[in-house]
Design a protein that fits this description.
Blueprint (H helix, E strand, L loop, with lengths): L4 E10 L4 E7 L2 H8 L13 E11 L1 H17 L9
Antiparallel strand pairs: 1-2, 1-3
């Protein structure tokens, strides 16, 4: 039997860095709190991170990765479209 779970693909924005962070997780609230807590990681310098986009799927983990890859490739090809997500 295949194990399907709820996953949320998300994009965060840091106004101070003017950078986006793309990821996926099964507990978005917990993950957003982690991004906005100082912990000695890259995302510390961008605090506060603000959620600008999310999509939730019932998928296999590998399917989430394919969706994430497509999104990243699309944003890289058309970076101005990222502004429309805010």
């Amino acid at each position: 039997m295949l194990n399907k779970s709820m996953y949320t693909l998300y994009i965060l924005h840091s106004k101070s860095l003017d950078k986006y962070y793309v990821g996926y997780i099964n507990d978005l609230t917990r993950r957003l709190n982690e991004h906005n807590r100082i912990k000695g990681k890259f995302t510390d310098v961008g605090i506060p991170w603000v959620l600008v986009y999310k999509e939730t799927y019932v998928l296999l983990p590998s399917e989430v990765i394919f969706h994430l890859s497509d999104l990243i490739v699309g944003l890289a090809a058309s970076p101005n479209e990222a502004d429309s997500l805010i």
